[in-house]
Amino acid sequence: MTPLKSPHQSGIIYACVYYHHHIVLDNHPLQEMAETRHFQLPIVAQEAKEENGNATNQVITELGTVKYKRWICILLCIIFLLCGQSVAALLGRLYFDKGGKSKWLSTLIQFAGFPILVPFYCISRPKMLTANHCSIGSNKQPSIMMLGLVYVTFGLMSAGIGFLYSVGMQYLPISTVTLIAASQLAFNAFFSYFLNSQRFTPFIINSLVLLTISSVLLVFNNNSSRLAGVSQVHCAAGFICTILGTAGSGLLVALQQFALRKLVVRQSFKVVLDLVMCQSLVASSAILVGFFASGDWKGFSGEMDEYGLGKFSYLMVLIWTAICWAVFYIGAVGLVLEVSALFCTAISALGLPIVIIIAVFVFNDKMDGIKVISMVLAIWGFISYVYQQYLDDYMPKTENTGEISELF
């Protein structure tokens, strides 16, 4: 049995224990390490917080730079589209107004200008960071056969649409053709709803209704829309062909957006060039077949000799029309890639006043009350759509900032 300790012995033991804990351990390396870590933890936490804050600010800055560059690209595409579309439409009307008669040749020059785009392949440009990426899970480039099928389909569709527009341009005033073409926004919205899950808001619905009414008004105004020497039958054919061409154009743009999202993994400026050039090559080849099969090529020399502005002007009209259409296609496909098919179509509608006002002075197109109302409705519809784009781009900004902060 352990003997009981005396009070003196207990005091000695207590003193030893106190000395061991409060003197020896206080100078022990483990104690110093613990105290050091105790003071270092808040510093490490503060440094980690600062690093996360810096990383968040860096990401926000980079996103702002990307957005800034993206809108510069969008602005350039808008300029290409509006300038190319307006000048090409006016030159196309000038071709028929001064003696041109070949619908096949008029269609051919809508696509034959694509070789001027070849030098753009030499321009090295980094990958575009677009807001509209391809579908998630698509990690492989599509096969050459699949891309070839897409390009051929789009090219043949473009050739048919171009021919329908040429018929309308031959038999109708350019102001009428342009106003009817504004309904492409309604057709494109309809097809984009099924192909690209386009959502409809009150402003977009308002825009579509106004643009549809704008085009319908022209149907009841066909007497003042008839060119000199054009029969009622040809005028009706021009209306029908223009409406069909507009519907086909709306479908084509929606399909282009669908193909770019689903098939193309790396979306870049080269993708735009590939699509425009391959599509134009197929369309030009198909139109050349029709041009020679119809026998229009036989009257080419005589048409040039009899042209109202002379041979040189005849060639200049054809060449510059082809160049302007090529510029237009670059802008159009670029907008489809960067934003959406519906946005591209809405910007195309912005060119309405430009073409119509110039046509009144250059080609003496009649500008009666119904055409004025139609143009006002078309512009109103365009503004309604642009306002919706403004809301979509700026309203979710706070939500996006919150999402970024959650990443860190």
Automatic annotation (TrEMBL):
One of its GO terms (molecular function) is purine nucleobase transmembrane transporter activity. It is found in: Membrane. The keyword Transmembrane applies. It is a multi-pass membrane protein. GO terms for cellular component: membrane. It comes from the Eukaryota. Belongs to the purine permeases (TC 2.A.7.14) family. The chain crosses the membrane at residues 71-92, 104-123, 144-165, 171-191, 203-221, 236-259, 271-292, 312-332, 339-363, 369-387. This is Probable purine permease. InterPro entries: EmrE-like (IPR037185), PUP_plant (IPR030182). Keywords: Membrane, Transmembrane, Transmembrane helix, Transport. PROSITE patterns: PROKAR_LIPOPROTEIN (PS51257). It comes from Gossypium tomentosum.
